[in-house]
Design brief:
By secondary structure, this protein is mainly α. It has one helix and no strands. The radius of gyration is 20 Å and the shape is rod-shaped. Bound molecules: zinc ion. Zinc ion binds next to loops.
């Protein structure tokens, strides 16, 4: 089997931090994951502007 590599930076995996090479890359991956989780498909971050003009 090929040697496993860090999906973040491509360096050899460190057993302590697998499947990443370091705490840094683990944190980067977690950040990405949370970034995805915060993006909710049916809940836009900002409400759409009202169609009617200001009165
Ligand atoms: Zn890495």
């Amino acid at each position: 089997m090929p040697e496993p590599t860090c999906p973040i930076c491509g360096k050899p995996v460190t057993p302590r931090w697998r499947p990443f090479c370091s705490e840094r890359c683990t944190a980067i991956d977690l950040g990405r994951w949370f970034g995805e989780a915060y993006r909710m498909p049916d809940a836009p971050a900002e409400p759409p502007p009202p169609d009617k003009p200001e009165e």
